[in-house]
Design brief:
CATH topology: Neuraminidase
CATH architecture: 6 Propeller
Largest sheet: 4 strands, antiparallel
Number of domains: 1
CATH class: Mainly Beta
Structural class: mainly beta
Number of helices: 0
CATH superfamily: Fucose-specific lectin
Number of strands: 26
Distance between the termini: 40 Å
Shape: globular
Radius of gyration: 18 Å
Strand order of the largest sheet: 3-26-25-24
Helix content: under 10%
Length: 312
C-alpha cells in the first residue's frame, strides 16, 4: 500500500438513564476538512490506497489498529500507538470484502473478511505475532462484522444467500456451527457488545429503516425496527463507550457521514457529520466519551474523525 501521508455551534447534552451523554449535532453538513461540532474533530487524512471500507479495533487506551484491503486485494494494517501512526503493513490474504476487526483482550486482535470462495476467513494476533489465515466456512453475501463480550469470546455475523443474518461463535475452545438469526437484510450488518454477555446487531432491511437484534446473555430477541428518517447508502458501523450506549454511523444518500445514538432508552435523530465518503464507515471506542470513526474517502484515502467529549 502506498503511503501518502469552524464553525462554533451550541452543543446540548441529554443524560440518559444509563449515563450516556448524547451531543446534538449542527443541522447543516460541512465539507471534508471542516469541523461539524465543537467536540468532533476535523477530518484527518491518514493516507493509503484503499479498495474497501476500513475496519478498526482497539485493545487499550489510546491504541488503534486500522485494517483495509488495498489494490493487491491483500489485508493491510496501520497502527496508532498513542503517539504516532505506523506505516501500512501487509498481512496478506485475498479479500473479496471489507475487513472487520475486534479485540477480545489486551494485545489481542481478530480480523475477519470474505475470501474468493465467499467463505469467512480469520486471522488473529496473540500479542507477539499474527497467526495464519484460517477458513470459517459459510456462504456469505456481505461484509462481515464481529463483536466480543469477554476474553476469548467472538461472535461473527454476515448476510447469507437467503438475505438472513447468519452467526457463528467462538467460546474460547472451539467454533460453533453457522446458524441463522433470520431477518431480511439489504446491507451488511454491524455489531458491538455493550456489556458482558450482551450483543447488538444492526442492519438495514427492505423498508429502508435500520433494524436491531439484541442478545441479552441468554437468548436472542426479535428484530426491532428503529425507524427511518435517513436514506442509508452503506452498512452501519456501531460502537459503544458505556454499558447500554450505542453510536451508529452510516453513509447517507448525500455521501456524507451520518450518526444516530441510543441512550439506553430511546434513539435520537440522525445528524450529519460531514465528509465525502465511499461506503461504509468503521467506528470504535477506547474509553468513556471517546469515539474514533474511519472512512474511505472519495479519493480512496483513509480519513479519521474523532469525538473527545467531556469526561463524566
Amino acid at each position: 500500500m502506498k503511503s501518502n501521508r469552524c464553525i462554533v455551534v451550541l452543543t446540548l447534552f441529554v443524560l440518559g438513564q444509563t449515563g450516556c451523554v448524547l451531543p446534538e449535532e449542527p443541522e447543516e453538513p460541512e465539507a471534508l476538512g471542516t469541523q461539524a461540532s465543537p467536540l468532533w474533530s476535523d477530518w484527518e487524512l491518514l493516507d493509503g490506497t484503499l479498495t474497501s471500507s476500513p475496519g478498526v479495533a482497539s485493545w487499550g487506551v489510546n491504541r488503534l489498529d486500522v485494517f483495509a484491503r488495498s489494490t493487491d486485494n491483500a489485508l493491510w494494517q496501520k497502527t496508532w500507538n498513542g503517539v504516532s501512526w505506523s506505516a501500512w503493513t501487509s498481512l496478506g490474504g485475498t479479500l473479496t470484502s471489507s475487513p472487520t476487526a475486534v479485540s477480545r483482550d489486551a494485545n489481542r486482535i481478530d480480523v475477519f473478511a470474505l475470501g474468493a470462495d465467499s467463505a469467512m476467513w480469520h486471522r488473529s494476533f496473540d500479542g507477539v505475532s499474527w497467526g495464519p489465515w484460517a477458513s470459517l466456512g459459510g456462504s456469505l453475501t456481505s461484509n462481515p462484522t464481529v463483536a466480543s463480550w469477554g476474553p476469548n469470546r467472538l461472535d461473527v455475523f454476515a448476510r447469507g444467500t437467503d438475505n438472513a443474518l447468519w452467526h457463528r461463535a467462538w467460546d474460547g475452545v472451539s467454533w460453533g456451527s453457522w446458524g441463522s438469526l433470520g431477518g431480511t437484510l439489504t446491507c451488511g450488518p454491524g455489531a458491538v457488545s455493550t456489556d458482558t454477555g450482551r450483543i447488538d446487531v444492526l442492519a438495514c432491511s427492505t423498508n429502508g429503516n435500520l433494524w436491531r437484534l439484541s442478545y441479552d446473555g441468554a437468548a436472542w430477541g426479535g428484530w426491532q425496527d428503529t425507524g427511518g428518517g435517513l436514506s442509508m447508502a452503506s452498512p452501519p458501523a456501531v460502537s459503544t463507550w458505556a454499558p447500554g450506549c450505542l453510536d451508529v454511523f452510516v453513509r447517507g444518500a448525500d455521501l456524507t457521514l451520518w450518526r444516530r445514538s441510543w441512550n439506553g432508552t430511546s434513539w435520537n435523530d440522525w445528524k450529519s457529520l460531514s465528509g465525502g465518503l465511499k461506503p461504509g464507515p468503521a467506528a470504535v471506542s477506547w474509553g468513556p466519551d471517546r469515539i474514533d470513526v474511519f472512512v474511505r474517502g472519495n479519493d480512496d484515502l483513509l480519513y479519521r474523525k474523532r469525538w473527545d467529549g467531556p469526561r463524566m
